[in-house]
Structures are given as C-alpha cells and as structure tokens.
Known about the structure:
By secondary structure, the chain is mostly beta strands. It is built from 1 helix and 6 strands; from the N terminus they run αββββββ.
Amino acid sequence: MADAPDAAAFAGALHTTFLFAREPEPPVALELVEVQAAPAAAGSPGSFSVVFLGPPGPALDQSTYPVSHPTLGEFPLFIVPTGRDGRGVRYEAIFNRM
C-alpha cells in the first residue's frame, strides 16, 4: 500500500467514493465531501484535512483502515467520526506533512 495522496489529489477526487475495508465485513463506501487546507498558523503547507460522508449506520470506529479508490489507488487512512446528521455519519482525516 502506498502513502496517502496529497491535498491536490484529494481535491481532484471530491464527490467520489472511497472504499474503507473492515474485515470480515464488507467494505463501507464513503463519499469525499470536503478538502480543506489548514490555516497558515497550523504549520507547513502540507497540512490539510479531508471529510467523508458515510451511511447512517453502522458507523466506523476511529481507526486506521485500508482504503481504495479507482483513481488514487490503495493506502491506509486514519479517520475519526465527527458527527451524525440526517444524511449520515461524517468522518475526518487530518494530514500534517512537513
């Protein structure tokens, strides 16, 4: 598995589906809904976050998952559930690359 893509690669994949593996259950499909650069005070230009939207249930736990995407390939990604609304569960991954 390769390293996770950079902010520009994620931005090019907005509103597409990423599959998060969770053996032995089937993978969960999450839609990439936001890519946001970190404020300048937060550090290096490689700092950014991505937000995914998933189905209302079952929610994924905070953890590192093997992720696959048709364009970006396969890579591990640590996500944190950040809330639930009428559309589903939101998850965030934060990157701090020096």
